## 1
Amino acid sequence: MDANYFIRRICVYCVFFLLSQSAFAANHIIHISVDGLYADALNILSETELPNFSRLKNEGSTTLKARTDPDWTTTLPNQTSQFSGRRVDDNEQEHGWEINFDPGTITLHSNAGRYIAGIFDVVHDAGLSTILFAGKQKFALFERSWNAINGADDHIGIDDGKNKIDKFIFDQSTESLVSKFIDDLENQTRHYAFLHIKDPDTAGHNYGWSILPGSEYLNAIKTTDNYLGQILTFLDTNNEYDATVIILTSDHGGIVGRTKHTANNYQSHTIPFYVWGKNVENADLYALNKCTAIQPSATEIPPYSSTLQPIRNSDAANLAALLLGLPQIPGSHIHTVKQIKSKNLKSC
Ligand SMILES: [Zn+2]
């Protein structure tokens, strides 16, 4: 370990020690995106059937009335929003990634015509460690966009380099992916760890987004609950990750009874947003964020023109930065979820 690295690590942990005294402290973020998770399906299954989703709900701050981007209900556009804290739209404020496949050559930046910073920039530039584990190969778009060639220079403190994602893993077996994810956390200290679980989306496309008892789709959610349980067990038994916050949301839902998700259908837009961890209060996430967010009605697809916005999956990026005590992502503006404790609530 060289001297600079050692000093930086000491400084980082001093800052974390101070932050750990505050209400917003997290030393580690585990950000999970469950592909195709229609939030109302979580109400169909019992707490016995979903012990781990239920634990997030019963111990953390949750809503089952979060939303995707109002115009896009596909994976890569919404995933880019989850990392960058921006809308999908193709204009100079947003990220502009509208296609749902990876062409294999271009990056988020070359597509937009400017650099699209993400949570990986902010965490890595602070000298902290990041990983991205995904169950779909097209997530290579993100690895390529923020790698040692295409990532931005680091002008924050010590130069941590252009490569913003320390490890990228694609594995089409979710069981194997989750196992590798937990092994990685055990063997390395990771501060922002992203995991993509594809199973509900796969079941939805193959068999339909069915909420009938015993459906393949509901079974895929139960399987996802089991993966979540493996991660919670790891956190319960690993002191180093004591101050970890899980942010769990989805890229999109799906049309009940159909095998697709479309932008004109509210079920495709309706997703959960869970925040769980030692410093997170057990509360409705909209109640905690009543000054900055408004809960939509069941079938509403609120546009960006509304003064108060719903909680969106794109809130994950800046919430992760906030909880780690890091600055907002450069160029981002979606930051609706700011509170995880009622004692910080002020009158609006
Ligand atoms: Zn899909």
Note: The CA atoms of residues 102 and 139 lie 8 Å apart.
## 2
Amino acid sequence: MPVTIITTPQHILHTNAHHPEQAARIDAIMATLHANPITGATMQVARMADWDCIRAVHTPDHVAWLQRRCDRITALSDLTADTYITPDSVTAARQAAGAACDAIDAMQAGQQAMALGRPPGHHATPGEAMGFCFFNNIAIAARYAQRHHRLQRIAIIDFDIHHGNGTQDAFYSDADILFISSHSSPLYPFSGNREQMGQGAGHGTTLNIPLQRLSDDTAYLAAYQQVVIPALTRFQPDCLLISAGYDAHWDDPVGNCALSVTGYGQLMRLLIDAADQLCDGKIAAILEGGYSQRALAASVHATICQLAKQPMLTDSLGQRPGNSHGADQSIAWLRTHHPLLHDAKEIFS
Ligand SMILES: [Zn+2]
């Protein structure tokens, strides 16, 4: 299966060697991809996202404020308590958003796709930068898919260990975009309660799966098999977009879960199989977090192997003991309470 890997050379304009979200993350991924080529995978340099595409998600004030902040500094500075900014951060962020849009184009051309951009995006709300994120790359890609490719119903699945609060905010009232997030709880940004299910026309199109700390491959697979896949089947999306964050790996210095590289590969396999069954195989992965560079590189490689339908490498990092029941409470609650999982009547017609 042909896979397009979208690269973002401008990402190096936004880096801080003393911060976990730094350029060396991408360097580690690229080194692993070059050392272990994947049959059928080709690389393509990302475009810069059009401002119109960014403004389809973000407020004009947010975009102008970020550009002003970049223009006023001459060196690395703090933007928020946890997020740094450089004079060219907006350029890097704009290419990361462009990479996500390029992944949509590749998907629509019949390819599997993964966008390797940074800074990540899923914490950025329509009006606020936070959690290392400036522009919400996957939200911009979802709107791009609707506007430029006439895809209507889009499912976003976020397996980063942190709740994708920005993506949730962008689509909380939207009936056509299903946002599913599995995340450790309690953990930054301390949102993503399972009771948050969307509002208005979007009631039922937000699905949060809080997981206990140390949730392992067994816990994650249970959540995906018993909640995510049934919800996707019910929603009947036109494509799947994956917020691919790798900080749930046991080796991650920021996260507190116990997923392995093999587990990440198995999650992707489930999602790819769902895309094959539900939406002609249309699926694209967009990089979010992941701060153990060796786990990140191996997990991205495993993801692309799955997209290419090629065998994964041996998981040299292996497994660590974890909590195999870390999803049980959320699975039971959601299967009783979430409209996508329990209602007999058709709520999405
Ligand atoms: Zn994260």
Note: Residues 89-108 form the longest helix (20 residues).
